[in-house]
Amino acid sequence: MFTDCLELxxxxxxxxxxxxxxxxxxxxxxxxxxxxxxKLLWEIKAIDNNKMTILSGKLSSIGKMIGGWVKDVQKRNSxxxxxx
Length: 84
Known about the structure:
The protein is mainly alpha-helical. The protein has 3 helices and no strands.
């Protein structure tokens, strides 16, 4: 799942503007799944509290970046539609 997120992020960077929204949305969903399963690992005590604290900060930062990317793509798409 982590490698899927990396693959989608790389793919989104090279995808044409017209198709970027689909890839970025897939990235957002995959990343949410990754966060869910990491939280599940923490809840069953497969990840200790110290590691989860470190991971949570990093996941939060990455999530904000992906969220910003989603908003940017939506904004650009809506501007393109208005120009047509």
